[in-house]
Amino acid sequence: MEDPLLREGLNHLREVDEDFARALGMITPLPSRKRDMGFEALTRIIIEQQVSLASAAAIWGRIQDDINPFTPTEFLKRNEDHLRELGLSRPKARYCLALAGDISDGRLDLDRLPELSDQEAAEHLTQVKGIGRWTAEIYLISCLQRPDIWPAGDVALQIALQHLKSLETRPTIDEMDEICAHLSPHRTLAARVLWRYYVDVVKPPKNPKQIQTPA
Length: 215
Prior knowledge:
- The chain has helices at residues 4-16, 18-24, 39-47, 53-66, 72-75, 80-85, 90-104, 118-126, 133-142, 155-165, 173-179, 187-200.
- With 215 residues, the chain is mostly helical.
- The model has no long low-confidence stretch (mean pLDDT 92).
């Protein structure tokens, strides 16, 4: 059965933006981006930053095999060199260790996030070293299922919007925010449409490592 909230959001996009209405007729069904909340999901999102999906999946598989149970306490038993042997870059090894440490020490409380506003939740996440706007927004989209998150700094979204709107140049973050402000309160869905439009319609870049469309 069709999700009534999804139907409402799609109808809103069709009504307020003719380009998005056209895009919806060109793409395949939207995949679910739902993930469980918690340390494991946030660690995976960090690992997926700025690498191809294939590379991220390979690294993630090795880390899952090595760390069991996947808890901050167990993660902290590994050092930076060990994590690098599993495929993490030095910065990402440090970021993941910082995340595990902040959760263990109580500085980051992922269980509180559902009670916070979008801005408050993003600010709580970005206090952790290595978690920036993109990582926080992907967690809010996929794990907290927030309906009006707009990751304007995502390169794939910028390229997709440039293509969809026939813009001369790739839009900046500020331009992304301005061009798509009218899509609120369904900007998460708009982002999902653009990610699918990028995959289905826009020609992939020569270097796929430069583009990441969150799973």
